[in-house]
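WARN retry 2 of 3 for item q-0093 after timeout on previous attempt; input resubmitted unchanged.
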Amino acid sequence: MRRVAIMTAGADAPGMNAAVRAVARSSFGLGYDVLMVQDGYEGLAKGDIEIMNKKTVSGILPLGGSILGSSRSSLAFMEQNIGRMKEALVRNSITTSIIIGDREAVAAAAFLDQHGIPCVVVPSTIDNDIFGTDFSIGFDSAITTISEALDKLHTTASAHHRVMIVEVMGRNTGWLALYGGLAGGADFIAIPEQVVSIDTLAAHLQHRKEEGKDFSIVVVAEGYPVEAHETVPSGRPVAGYSLAEHVASRTSLTTRVTVLGYLQRGGSPTVFDRLLATRLGMAAVDAVREGKSGVVVGEMGQRIILTPLAESAAQLHVIPAEVVLQAKTFY
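OK item q-0093 returned
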């Protein structure tokens, strides 16, 4: 009898619960026992594991966040607690763990795999930076939030004739900035995959002003390499504020900054994310049924593919050059 454990790990993303539901219901359909691990790898180390039933996943499809809770776990944490994790899995007779999470969760799962612990990862992160899938669960919901925010910011930027610089998440990739910016009609998008000089950006915005366009929306990814003039109150340099200071120092334009922050990870998942989560969750259980582990379940070109955890952990999913080039048509 297979006993499958489900956990969510790393940063939360809209659609995680839909994936939990899909994994659980597919497992129930195959007659597997299903156990839920609370609070990701930290919960696994503590042995915080309970039996899951159909009622547990009833009504969770449209919910954001994670009903299981989540936590970030470094490789140092994994190394210190691997013995406790193995003990918890053995004590509960768990044969495979299905982990729904981000790149950090993938790296931790790769560590488990190296230590002989069978696991399958379902990619779930708004950053869309997991190698082995076209899109991760939560990405579509996040860019929908970004585009809606830009729609609202257009009105105030226009009324006051300002340059509105909007910083979005994404870590070291520009997926959120590029897709959210395009959908929201941004006038310039700054992403790590294609760095341009501050002078180029400033000249672009000044030229728009001279053409009679009295406001501009600039979207910048949080990982964009901007040399900081100053820091925000927390003491941490922020791409949006740093970029605004550089633009203001080179032009006569008035700049304002909006950091969308955790709003991008909140709320209900979009239809696309609910369907993607359902499809990938079911595929993860199919992998378990076929005796496969040590893989990330992804979708490329509408086909399910399996990528070894070590390979996925070692590579970053970045925006293809041709997509960046196409986007440049609009700014």
